[in-house]
Amino acid sequence: MKKIVVIGGGTMGLDIAQVFAKKEFDVVVRDINDDIIKASEARLNKGLDKLVAKGKMDEAKKADILAHMTFTTDLNLAADADLVVEAAIENLDIKKSIFAELDKICKPETILASNTSSISITAIAAATQRPDKFIGMHFFNPATVMKLVEVIRGAHTSDETYQAIHDLSVEIGKEPVEVNEAPGFVVNKILIPMINEACDLLYTGVASAEGIDTAMKLGANHPMGPLALGDLVGLDVCLAIMDTLYNETHDPKYRASLLMRKMVRAGKLGRKTGVGFYDYRK
Ligand SMILES: CC(=O)CC(=O)SCCNC(=O)CCNC(=O)[C@H](O)C(C)(C)COP(=O)(O)OP(=O)(O)OC[C@H]1O[C@@H](n2cnc3c(N)ncnc32)[C@H](O)[C@@H]1OP(=O)(O)O
Ligand SMILES: NC(=O)C1=CN([C@@H]2O[C@H](COP(=O)(O)OP(=O)(O)OC[C@H]3O[C@@H](n4cnc5c(N)ncnc54)[C@H](O)[C@@H]3O)[C@@H](O)[C@H]2O)C=CC1
User: Fold this and answer.
1) Same domain as 216, residue 169
2) What is the ipTM of this complex?
3) Which residue range or ranges hold the 3-hydroxyacyl-CoA dehydrogenase C-terminal domain (predicted)?
4) Which residue, 21, 132, 189, 203, shows the most beta carbons closer than 10 Å to its own?
């Protein structure tokens, strides 16, 4: 495997691309317009500069990573890719339309992977003529730091495709866990309802945001509190995951918190919009 295309240069796409580029794969990041692509490239430069300033990376490695990355709005650059990892927004119809197009553009051997947080791999794969070469490759935020990759088999994923993505995950320094398709897979089935519960605690006035987060940090030894984590993930992503869990199971325990939905409607998505449960604009 040599050339990898990442669809979406947002929170996850940019970090995933960086992980591959660090291991010297040729990576293309594709997003929908020039402004977003420029902002994504600027975020990459800023992030790498920070690592250099902290002495965690030297200038030569930074230059090497940049040399392995291309930013574009042109999906046709995926024609000769060995792998495409999609990290666009958490919406089935959008993912299906992206993969229907990729299926026509990419060479027949290209593996198509989605970084979806919760959506059925089988449902997305149905937009293509190659469901055997379709798989979930689910990274965790921040993807440059978190060790896990959930490797998710859809109904038609071949063993060959599974093995290729398992081996690639090991090659980039991650720890793969094999997962059979189910809404939310493993981590998000547990983690996102916890964030949802934290929203309800805040909504019902049981404790302040700081109080809830401090309680979970000190009482459960979590590295960050659930509300701060919701802000890191993005409340739009959390809400999309809760809605998938609910719509797939109709189990009321997965009903999204009214506060979470209200905040998404208000555009308070967390770090990416500058405001969520906390204010990041300073
Ligand atoms: C929604 C989904 O589908 C799935 C998901 O992703 S769910 C979310 C999963 N993620 C989590 O649960 C994250 C929980 N939080 C954590 O693990 C930690 O708070 C954290 C890794 C984010 C930060 O860790 P921390 O110890 O508080 O901060 P810090 O000391 O600054 O960072 C630890 C290391 O990560 C690095 N780091 C932190 N954030 C980083 C980033 N965004 N980019 C690059 N490096 C980063 C730091 O440089 C540091 O590296 P060293 O160990 O080499 O010094
Ligand atoms: N935020 C998180 O913590 C995690 C998110 N995910 C999943 O990763 C995916 C991306 O999430 P985020 O990066 O958080 O979202 P984001 O909102 O930060 O970024 C999404 C990006 O996709 C772009 N995009 C939308 N349509 C596109 C298209 N047709 N082609 C190319 N780019 C397109 C948007 O312009 C945006 O830049 C989602 O499926 C999400 O569920 C998975 C793991 C963790």
Assistant:
1) no
2) 0.93
3) 184-280
4) 21
Q: Cα-atom radius of gyration of the chain, to the nearest Å?
A: 19
CATH number of the CATH domain containing 42: 3.40.50.720
What span, in angstroms and rounded, lies between the C-alpha atoms of 279 and 282? Answer: 7
Distance from the CA of 205 to the center of ligand 2, in angstroms?
32
Task: Divide the 282 residues of the chain into consecutive groups of 10 and give the mean pLDDT of each group.
Answer: 96 98 98 97 97 97 98 98 97 98 98 98 98 98 98 98 98 98 97 98 98 98 98 98 98 98 98 97 88
Query: Among 40, 115, 118, 188, which one carries the catalytic annotation?
Result: 188
Q: 234 CB under 6 A from ligand 2?
A: yes
Query: Range of 140's domain?
Result: 3-180
Our count of domains for the chain comes to: 2
User: Is there a domain that residue 202 lies in?
Assistant: yes
Q: Which helix (H) or strand (E) holds 245?
A: helix 235-249
**Shared-domain flag, residues 251 and 114:** no
